[in-house]
Amino acid sequence: MEQPYLCPVCRDNRQDFLQVYKLAREIRKDPETGAILYAADEWEALTRDGRLDIEIRCQLCDHSAPEIDFVRAARRDMERAVRPRGRRA
Ligand SMILES: [Zn+2]
User: Fold this and answer.
1) DSSP secondary structure of 39-77
2) 15: exposed, middle or buried (C-beta count within 10 Å: 0-12, 13-18, 19+)?
3) 49/81 Cα distance (integer angstroms)
4) How many Å lie between the centroid of ligand 1 and the Cα of residue 68?
5) pLDDT at 3 over 70
6) Distance from the CA of 79 to the center of ligand 1, in angstroms?
């Protein structure tokens, strides 16, 4: 969480994001009618490797994706800034 983000889609937002996490509950459906035969009472936060499975949403363009996509975009952008080749702007 302590790494800079850059939105990989609009490439304009480094500051304003939403952290989104997913809630899940178990259900069982009837394969023919589609009726829900069982639904767990509780929704549980999804975890991955023991950590909350968090997505990030850009507040500018509403793109949402796993956090790593935003971290990678920021990293790539930084590398580009360090290398003074192919100057743009
Ligand atoms: Zn964006």
Assistant:
1) E-S--EE-EETTEE-EEEEETTT--EEEHHHHHHHHHHH
2) exposed
3) 33
4) 14
5) yes
6) 20
Distance (angstroms) between ligand 1 centre and the Cα of 36 equals 37
- C-alpha 4 to ligand 1 mean position (Å): 14
Q: Indicate if the pLDDT at residue 87 is higher than 60.
A: no
pTM: 0.69
Give the pLDDT confidence of 46-75 residue by residue, as tens digits: 888 888 888 999 999 999 999 999 999 999
Expressed in angstroms and rounded, the spacing between residue 64 Cα and the centre of ligand 1 is 8
Q: Which residue has the tokens 């509780």?
A: 42
Output the CA 20–ligand 1 centroid distance in Å.
Answer: 15
